[in-house]
Every structure is written in structure tokens, then in C-alpha cells.
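for the record, two folds in this file. i put them one after another cuz i was lazy. first one right below, seq on top, C-alpha cells after. the second one comes after a little note so u can tell where it starts
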Amino acid sequence: MKTAVVTDSTAYIPKELRDKWNIHMIPLNVIFGSEAYQEEVDITAGQFYQQVKEKELPTTSQPPIGQFVELFEQFSKDYEAVISIHLSSGISGTFAGAVTASTMAESIKVYPFDSEISCMPQGFYAIEAAKMAQDGVEAREIMSRLEELKKTARAYFMVDDLSHLQRGGRLSSAQAIIGSLLQVKPLLHFENKVIVPFEKIRTRKKAMKRIVDLLGEDASGGAPYQAAIIHANREEEAVEWKSELESMYPNVEFSISYFGPVIGTHLGEGAMGLGWMKK
């Protein structure tokens, strides 16, 4: 049974990996004034962070349902099923759009998957699904495997500036003001599909150390893990962190990824995160 794998742009899977594993990508949009850009298509992360310095903070939007339906119908020519993997339904309507489109695409069976997370941990699901699809594994079995991986998926991130979260409606004004006054670096994570504070930490250095400790709680048993260091225009810092982490956890395969335009709109430049799951 031939199965297609699609994910949205917020997985931020590098194009060479998408091509290698035949992962199809549907873009979300970032909107500066009257100008809409499809992320990973019309605008890169680097271009986005430059534009944010020069313009008002943009807004974001999910792919139109018609775009999903068209994509799913195209797959029906070459595939028997589609697995459609998306960022958490608690922070975006993208997954709901895929579910609606799946009922409208009559010529192919679509399996929407709510990653309940975003960025490269979402990408890990897509890569695993695509590898299994290339091996001819049936779609239902792939979905079972993704649900199994979900039990081990974690992601923690800290923001440098609370104002983006507050302006994007992800944090109340009062929390933003108090956080700014106290120089708090809130450690955030996904819980029940939404972004919530995990702990309030006073400095960036301590926040990043706490993330490392949380990884250690899972990885110290020696089981093989994959992890992504995720940065918002802080590549040099990410490279240094990767080197440090690799020496601490040889059983973890680390990669470097980034918060692209859509997620970067809500977190702001300087955010750092770490996401992982068992292999």
C-alpha cells in the first residue's frame, strides 16, 4: 500500500531531508501588513528576522482548506493513503483544516495526525512516517508507531522577550509586564496541546541548564534518543550548545533546527528550545 506523507511548514524540516524521504510540505503564512508570505517557500527564517527588525510584528494564518483538498486529491493518482502530520491543534487550526479536508477528499484515505507539538519534534514524526512508508508499511501501522513515539516526546523552550507572546495573544499583558520587570525567562512547554509555563527562571543561562537537566531525566537510562536544538536566529549559540550536549549524552543524536517565521512571530528572536523523543 503506497502511503504519502505530508506535514506543514512549521516542522522546519530542511528541504534536502524532505526530498530524501519524499515528505510533502504545506505552508502556513506570515503576513506583514498587506503582504502575505508562505513560510519556507516565499520567505526564509533569516529574511523573516531581518524584516521583523524593520516592520511591525506580523500575523500568521493557516493553510486554506482548499489547498489541503487539492493536495490530497493530487495524491490519489499515485497513492492509496495519506498521513498528514501537523502542529498542535491547541495553537493552530491547521490540524482541524486537514481533518475537514480529509472528509472532502473522496478519492483517497487520509489519516490526520495531531503532533501536539511543533517545530522539529513534529518533523521527527514526519521523517519516521516517511521512512516506514518507503518500506511499504501500511498507514494504520505507521499511525500506531507515531502514537507510541508521542509517549516519549518532550520539548522545552525559553523566550528572550515576552512581548511577542503577549502581542500574539499567547500570554496575558500582566504576565508580560511582571516577567519583563523581573527579567524572568519563562521555561515553556506543551501541555494538553497548548503552550504553558513550566517554570519561571531568572536568567537565560539557568533556563538552558534546566532544559539540559530535563533531557537528562529521560536520556540518562542509555536508551537511544533523537533531539533537536531549536533557535530563533541564534545559530552560533545553538552550535556551541550542541557540542556541549553531545559530550554529555552520547546516546542522543542531536541536530540543529530553528524557529521559522510562523513560530518565530510568537516567540521572538533569541528564543531557544530543545525537543526530543526516543528513536
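(here's the note) second protein begins now
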Amino acid sequence: MLDICLLGTGGMMPMPGRFLTSLAARLNGRMMLIDCGEGTQVTMKMQGWGFKNIDAICFTHFHADHISGLPGLLLTIGNAGRMEPLKLVGPQGLTYIVEGLRRIAPELPFPLELIELGKDTPNPLRLGEFEVSFCQADHMVRCYAYRIDVKRRGKFDPKKAEALGLPRPLWGKLQKEGAVEFEGKTYTPDMVLGAERPGIAMAYCTDSRPVDRLAHFAKGVQLFICEGMYGEEEKKPKALEHKHMLFSEAARLAKFAEAEELWLTHFSPALQEPAEFLQNATDIFPNTLLGEERKMTTLYFPKEG
């Protein structure tokens, strides 16, 4: 299972009761973040997941409301006793940005491993427990959407094992140990498994226009977390000018992606009561919810028919 917690839902500036953009994911006891706006460590402390087990932080882009919380968070992670390397992932220019921010956090008890996304970067990336894909968004600066997939292996197929001539007493050992030797040959689990089963998937996108590639990128996810900078339809010219989305545009993306659920986030400071405009999204994609500070869900593998 994959735990998801929306740590902050604000865009541009923090507001009373609304922290800046950040998301936490937890899998097999390990954690990763997407974005780290101002106040991220405060809302994380309120959530109670801890800091030591954060293995990666992915940045959508380098506007301050998405990264200004990094120096303080790095110091807090260090104070939590972390010694293992921490991966930081983001658009090209990440090294330059992090070097600047670290001037107020120069001494850390753990090394940083920086990954700048480009055409030669493996996609998906393996970040500890997490398989993370990325897709370029459409914003004023280079910006990426991220997707987390938790794959699920196929079921053990006795017919395949029998066809290989593998004795029954070795079947359990093969599944538990990952490989067995028999009569001079090595047998691995992929040789006796059926087709891969549906896994867990979620996608996260902020600061973008609703371009088609994002719908393809989020195809079939159980949870799509997407910016809804503006709730009012009359804010369309402003959304176009600054390359953001309306509630209705995020809903159309979710519909085209055939997502199961949509959470709206990254609200404009002027959007005091997002609930007043929620229907602009639910009329298009009924299973739309408003993001809230520390809103959490757990995603499970789909039930098999």
C-alpha cells in the first residue's frame, strides 16, 4: 500500500491555515516528497510521519513557493539522525539552486545526491523504494509533473514450473529466495510468473496549463493531484497569462486521464473559499475533492476479479 499526504495546498504565499506546496508519499516505511514550499517542515511535524526516513525530494520547478522550505528541512532531517544519502531531483539548474540555498545550511551529516532531469535521464527513476516517472509540464519556467507507480508481480504459474521440469519442493524456495539451482541451471521467479498484475499509481502536477501530454501521463491513476489555482471561470485570462489552471481545466485533465479520483491543490491566495467553486470541477469530473492541509489517503492494489 502507498500512503499519500498533501502537506500544503497554497500557491504563491502561505496563508493562515494554508501552507505552501508539498506532498509526502510513504511506502514500506520509507518516504519521499514532491516540492518543499515554505513551512513544509512545520506541517510535516503536525502530520507526525517523522523526517529521518525521507530518501528523496522531487521538485516540480524552482519558483520559491515550491522550494523555499528546503534549507530548514535539510537541517531538521540532519537533527533527526539521518546519515544515509538524500536524493534531490528537479529540472536542470538544480545544482545551482541547491548550492545557493545551502549557504544557510552548509553542514549536514548526510550527503546529497542531485539528479537534474534531462533527455538522458532514465524515466522512470528508481528512488529508494519508489519508482518515479516525470513529464514536462507547461509553465513559465521548466516544470515537471511526477508519477509514482508501485508495480505488482504476476501470480505463480504452476504450469510454467512444470514445463521447466522444476520439482515441486523447489517452488516455494524459488518464490521466497528469488532464485534456485537445479541440475546445474539457475531458475528465477520471472520464469514461473504470469502477467504483471495492476499496481498502484498516483500523479502530481502543479503550475501548468492543461496540455494533452499530462492527461496521457496520468492515464489510469487511482489518484491525480492537480493544481486548481483559480476556481472562477472568469479567471481564464489570468490562468493563460501565468500558465496555471482553473478547477474546470484540472477536472477535464482527470476525465481524459480516466483517473479514479482528483484532488485540487495550489490555490491562489485570493481564493479564500475554494468550496464555493468546487462544482465547476464536479460537473465535469464528479469524483473531485478539495485538497486540505495534511489530507491523507492510502492507495491499495486493485482487487482481483
